[in-house]
């Protein structure tokens, strides 16, 4: 019964967070900002305000596929956010510019996350095979290596949190100071950014729960020995 509750939690929490993001985004994507600027225009305005001229803004594909690529110095906005005028689009665009500003300033957590990314990716891909192999073969050493690999992926999730929260804080400050949003629009933009942040919090918590489960299983394996 406990396992059923556990798996329900790790399945339902991310679904709830994603649904909240989509509903919040859908609501505020229908409300235009006072400045009547597209997401692309918002991004370019904030970049110019911060004297960042080596970052390009381009349209991407897919729904809420927005991201900043530090390697190519590109802000990629999903089609609706790039072309349309809305509070939601402005908030998302400003958030991605927040990452570009972090990059330009050498923000410590962003640098750490970038350095950790290759190791975390490897750990995420290999850990489950090592853990399953260790469990099936009753090789506690192999299982432990899998846990250590998985721990790097969990660490990456938690390092991501301050990066995302800081980018959202920068986004709000930039939108207000540049006049992109006015007083009555600030709560709307905050709701969009907070809903998006929930997905990162949910991912980090689920990853931590999985790590704890693997550790408990490892302890049980050694206890049986």
TrEMBL record:
The chain crosses the membrane at residues 115-137, 142-163, 192-212. InterPro entries: Zn_peptidase_2. Keywords: Membrane, Transmembrane, Transmembrane helix. It holds the Pfam family Zn_peptidase_2. This is Zinc metallopeptidase.
């Amino acid at each position: 019964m406990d396992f059923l509750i556990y798996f329900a939690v790790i399945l339902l929490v991310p679904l709830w967070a994603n649904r909240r993001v989509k509903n919040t985004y859908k609501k505020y994507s229908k409300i235009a900002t006072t400045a009547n600027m597209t997401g692309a225009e918002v991004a370019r305005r904030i970049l110019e305000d911060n004297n960042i001229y080596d970052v390009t803004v381009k349209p991407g594909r897919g729904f809420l596929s927005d991201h900043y690529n530090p390697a190519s110095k590109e802000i990629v906005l999903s089609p609706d956010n790039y072309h349309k005028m809305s509070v939601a689009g402005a908030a998302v665009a400003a958030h991605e510019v927040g990452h570009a500003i972090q990059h330009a300033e050498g923000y410590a957590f962003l640098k750490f996350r970038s350095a950790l990314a290759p190791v975390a990716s490897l750990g995420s891909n290999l850990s489950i095979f090592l853990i399953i192999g260790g469990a099936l073969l009753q090789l506690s050493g192999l299982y432990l290596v899998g846990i250590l690999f998985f721990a790097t992926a969990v660490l990456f999730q938690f390092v991501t949190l301050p990066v995302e929260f800081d980018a959202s804080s920068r986004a709000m400050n930039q939108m207000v100071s540049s006049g992109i949003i006015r007083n009555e629009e600030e709560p709307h933009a905050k709701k969009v950014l907070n809903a998006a942040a929930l997905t990162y919090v949910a991912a980090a918590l689920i990853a931590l729960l999985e790590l704890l489960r693997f550790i408990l299983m490892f302890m049980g394996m050694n206890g049986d020995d």
